[in-house]
Specification:
The complex is a heterodimer of chains A (about 475) and B (about 160). Chain A contains seven helices and 19 strands. Chain A is mostly beta strands. Chain A has a 14-stranded antiparallel barrel with strand order 1-2-4-6-7-8-9-12-13-15-16-17-18-19. The radius of gyration of chain A is 26 Å and the shape is elongated. The chains are: A mainly beta (about 475), B mainly alpha (about 160). At the A-B interface, strand 3, strand 6, strand 7 and strand 8 of A face helix 1, strand 1 and helix 2 of B.
Chain lengths: ~475, ~160
């Protein structure tokens, strides 16, 4: 096979028009994860009104004030993401998994004659960004990624898939579309917290989070002439080497380096052995994203292959909205019932401080966010029962995180069923195990709107083990 | 600027001691079960209470009591200090003798003056009640006594 390689260090058009930032990028850092701590996860993360261990620094820092003993805790989690995708009635499944340190924390209650003053610091893995997608389907329509790109940048022209004016007049859909997308990484934070009892049984606390993280996305996309429609047609009229079009291929690799900080304040009021009430304010988080983008594309013909490459680095900030939480837990003779609601107005998510990208593009994206997203209230409920005399606690919970997109039906809400078991040994060592199963629907467009739509049924499973030692 | 304000707020929050919480400091008794007041436990189960409720400081031996370097002086001690003109090369503070009106008496042999050195707060308790000695010119210690003996300057304007 005769291979002609054409390398292009393409102009800015590609980055601004094709690999622009998206609403998905904003939601990646602004939507909550599955938290830290196995006891909390076992109770459906309805933990803002309990929070009497190291994970209080994540859920409700006021809960630290309830602690009277020094605590060192650590956790490990296993996360598995499965995606059953449907493209043009053809189903494909794919999965990916990750194992991470979930939490390392230290809590120091200062000796008091009355009340409490407690300090803590922790490393928390706050969100796992692992995901996977595989799709494969024949598009009978008169559209394709090639045609869509031709309206926005020069890649199809560079690959001899258009005429000399850059118009994709020959390629007219009816291609098999397939690909994969693998994403990995996560958000993590170093947290410094303090809490105190300001009035009898009334606690306030704050957490300062120094955030960091990494995210990598690797997308491969193919359009193949599986039915031989372009066998005898020159995709670039006048160029004989462009007869017998076989495949268009593109590979996008996005690499994020994430940093930032935020502040969370909380309060808890306890009514003796009966109930606790909690509330938190999560101040907006500002994430600085340093993004490296690598692009490769090729077109393959019967006797020729053309290639195009591009890479750049840009930087911008994403600021997440305020999040307000109200919570209650009730203790009925060893049976703890807990519930909380978290209000987040995603329309307040913002992009800012662009470096290497157009400020007007980000402003336009902010406008899209306001028009596309909505305010939602996430609900968490949990239960914990202590088996008398045995020293074992069993837990269950449910999480509902509504889709932040306007108009999404309820089956697009993220839902999790959780369960867990806790053991307490010798009044000092606690071992907690939790399991969560989540499911929801979503979709994504390869290009355009509902021209090449991938419907996705997502499930994920998380197993979390936490060890806590109290001195 | 906004970040600095928030950071300052957090530092204030972390360093703030509320009106309810009383933290232990080295100059007060270490908190124990007997001398401290702890909030109610949320848990009823006997085996959970120690895990969540018992303060760690109940289980450790209290550290030795710290004696502060500077103690409050009583007014009387202040009087003593100001009356003795410290730092003038007198290693031992002279006794202050309360002045009483001099009464002409037949010449007799004066009783011996109590001249044992006293220090610190005990000094106030050791003011002599003995019969005042007969003053003689050139007795510098007695002249100081005279100048300061009304006590008004030193007691009205304590140095601290």
């Amino acid at each position: 096979m005769k291979i002609l390689k054409v390398f292009f260090l393409t102009v800015f058009i590609l980055s601004t028009a094709d690999q622009a930032q998206t609403i998905t990028d904003a939601l990646r850092v602004s939507e909550g994860g599955l938290g830290v701590g196995a006891r909390a996860l076992g109770m459906g993360n309805a933990y803002s009104a309990i929070s009497d261990d190291g994970s209080a620094m994540y859920f409700n820092p006021a809960g630290l004030g309830l602690m009277k003993r020094l605590e060192v805790a650590g956790g490990l989690d296993y996360f598995n993401f499965k995606n059953d995708a449907t493209l043009f009635n053809n189903k494909t499944n794919y999965s990916s998994s990750a194992t991470n340190f979930n939490q390392i924390s230290f809590v120091f209650p200062f000796p008091t004659l009355r009340g409490s003053l407690v300090f803590g610091m922790a490393y928390n893995k706050t969100k796992d960004l692992t995901s996977a997608l595989k799709f494969d389907g024949f598009n009978i329509g008169n559209n394709s990624m090639i045609q869509d790109l031709a309206t926005r940048n020069s890649v199809p022209f560079d690959l001899y898939l258009t005429d000399n004016d850059g118009n994709a007049n020959v390629i007219n859909g009816k291609l098999n579309q397939s690909g994969t997308m693998l994403q990995e990484g996560g958000l993590e934070s170093w947290t410094f917290s303090s809490a105190m009892e300001v009035s009898k049984n009334l606690y306030v606390g704050g957490s300062l989070n120094v955030n960091s993280g990494a995210f990598k996305s690797n997308r491969e996309y193919y359009e193949d002439d599986t039915k031989g429609i372009y066998d005898t047609i020159e995709t670039a009229p006048g160029n004989a080497s462009t007869k017998n079009f076989i495949t268009f291929y593109r590979n996008d690799i996005i690499d994020w380096e994430i940093s930032g900080w935020d502040l969370k304040l909380g309060t808890i009021y306890q009514i003796s052995k009966i109930a606790r009430f909690g509330a938190t304010i999560q101040f907006p988080k500002t994430f600085t994203i340093k993004e490296a983008y690598d692009f490769y594309a090729s077109s393959e013909f019967g006797s020729t292959m053309y290639e195009s490459t591009y890479n750049d680095k840009v930087e911008y900030d994403i600021t997440t909205p305020f999040a307000l939480t109200g919570a209650v837990s009730v203790n009925v003779k060893g049976l703890i019932l807990s519930a909380e609601a978290n209000l987040t107005d995603y329309t307040q998510t913002k992009f800012s401080n662009p470096k290497g990208i157009s400020a007007t593009d980000l402003a336009s994206l902010d406008k899209d966010i306001k028009e596309t997203l909505r305010a939602v209230a996430a609900l968490n409920i949990g239960v914990e029962y202590t088996i008398p005399e045995v020293g074992i606690r069993v837990r269950g919970g449910f999480v509902s995180q509504p889709s932040p997109y306007k108009g999404d039906p309820s089956d697009f809400n993220k839902k999790y069923l959780t369960g867990g078991v806790g053991f307490l040994a010798d009044e000092t060592l606690a071992i907690d195990v939790a399991y969560a199963h989540g499911w929801w629907k979503t979709y994504g467009d390869n290009y355009g709107t509902n021209l090449s739509r991938i419907y996705q049924d997502i499930t994920n499973d998380k197993m979390l083990v936490t060890f806590s030692y109290r001195f | 600027m906004k970040a600095f304000k928030l950071l300052a707020f957090v530092i204030l929050l972390f360093g703030f001691q509320g009106c309810y919480t009383v933290i232990w400091t080295p100059d007060i008794d270490f908190p124990t079960k007997d001398n401290s007041d702890n909030s109610d436990s949320y848990y009823e189960e006997p085996y959970l209470i120690p895990y969540y409720g018992d303060p760690w400081w109940y289980r450790v031996p209290p550290p030795p009591t710290f004696t502060p370097l500077v103690k409050e002086r009583s007014d009387e001690a202040t009087k003593l200090r100001n009356g003795s003109e410290p730092g003038r090369g007198t290693p031992e503070r002279p006794i202050i003798i309360e002045r009483t009106p001099v009464v002409e008496q037949p010449v007799t042999t004066p009783p011996p003056t109590v001249s044992q050195p006293v220090t610190g707060e005990d000094a106030s308790a050791k003011k002599t009640e003995s019969t005042p000695p007969k003053r003689e010119r050139g007795d510098s210690s007695n002249s100081r006594d005279t100048r300061n003996n009304d006590g008004s300057r030193s007691s009205d304007t304590p140095r601290r």
